[in-house]
Design goal:
single chain, alpha+beta, 6 strands
Length: 143
């Protein structure tokens, strides 16, 4: 383990991300002005969970945005060497894709070639994530 051997870990500057749309019909979309707060809230949580090596599933909502989420990491220690701004960018692209396809529920999968994978389900318009629904989803590149 790198932490035990004292090896220097190089921060990841990119994250591969894939999307799987679970449901559509979001007529209004997420307000553009709310996207930075959503990204910040989700990214802060992911970075914190990585820093404390938490593999626990987290569920919650982003205040005032009608967004509910479920997040779980996998891999050895459930941690990522990705920089916070790199996580921000991947989440923003996921949320923007959700808006562009008018999804009310979507899964996002994050990885960077190491052992870490992040699995996030986002639900809008007062919907709630369906536990386990992303496990068998068909993922494609978020365009």
């Amino acid at each position: 383990d790198e932490r035990e051997t004292g090896a220097i870990l190089i921060p990841r500057l990119s994250i591969d991300h894939k999307c799987a749309v679970l449901s559509t019909g979001f007529t209004a979309g997420i307000a553009i002005g709310q996207i930075p707060a959503i990204v910040r809230g989700l990214s802060d949580m992911i970075k914190y969970l990585s820093d404390v090596n938490s593999c626990d599933t987290q569920r919650g909502s982003i205040t005032d945005s009608q967004i509910n989420f479920e997040y779980k990491a996998s891999g050895r220690n459930c941690d990522t060497t990705s920089e916070k701004k790199t996580i921000d960018s991947a989440i923003q692209q996921c949320i923007e894709h959700m808006n562009s396809v008018k999804a009310t529920q979507m899964c996002c999968e994050f990885s960077h070639g190491g052992t870490w994978k992040g699995h996030m389900q986002v639900a809008a318009q007062y919907r709630y994530p369906d536990p386990g629904k992303c496990d068998n989803a068909i993922y494609t590149k978020c365009d």
